[in-house]
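TRAP transporter small permease protein
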Amino acid sequence: MGHIYSTVMDAIYLAAMWIAGLALIVMTLIIPVGIFARYVLNDGLSWPEPVAILCMVTFSFVGAAVGYRARSHIAVNMLTDRLSPAMKKLCAKLAELMMMVISLFIFYYSLQLCLELWEQPVAEFPLITAGQTYLPMPIGSLVTLLFIVESLFRGTQEHRPIVMLGNTD
């Protein structure tokens, strides 16, 4: 059962990595278009800013889940490096549980935000609503929760080849 769960998490991980990367690329391409239109063509386009915000929210929250699973985030180990192996393991489990609480908090309140703003249109970009703009927040926190569950029951995954993809360590 655990192997199947990790296989599913591998697929989610790769999809999340691609989604976050594409969102970053699209945002990087969209912002200069808006600047060019505003300052060179003297015609401010209405759509680059909301699209850039959607991309930023996407790569921030979905990319955070990817970084969490790969353990490529910033960690301060000054205290835990001086602990016994048993205490290190206890601190690691405690950190995982605190991450779970934080992710549940973000999931709950970002979902409430999406539901509250679901019908509110975005004037500059009428194809999506404000609630849809923030949908990557609960999705990213849910993916993070799935990775936390995997880490709690299957151990950290940063040394597996599929997770090391892109790491330089």
